[in-house]
Amino acid sequence: MEDEVGLTFPSDYREWLTRYTEVQLDGFLYIIHPGGRPEKSALTQAREMLDPLVFVTEDLDPIWLVGDQGGGAEVNPFPVYPNPGGLYPWGVTDNGDTCLWLTDQDPEKWTVVITDGADWWQFKGSFSDFLVGLLKGLAVCPIFPRRFPGSAHIEEISEEDLNSRAECDL
Fold it and tell me: What is the pTM of this model?
């Protein structure tokens, strides 16, 4: 997968991929396994998720970066993969939000970015720091509903479920 997309992923995410297929947190946040959908390559899946953001970031100058405690600021748009330091997707929500990394040459320095297409929020920590912080209530993404997460319910989506979804999509 890394060779296909030309990126080296952070070690915490690579470890995640060895343990889980796609995962759903509290019926809202879906963490994608790039190799989990046999009908789509990781590169195709990423491009499909990023295409709407390329359009938004090219048309918006600047974007609205929401602060942790409300408010925010206008900032220059983030670059989008395959541009160096570009955004790369790792998840989605039921509300249509996209969960991304802001990449760096050093994958251990990647940070989390969440957008609903209009507002943007950045968590200056790792993938695992974000997930643990979210579940413990220490990281609060202002783009997500206030009630999320309402529980620590985590459901792994089996390969069988992924395959049956792929058949329905064809």
Answer: 0.86
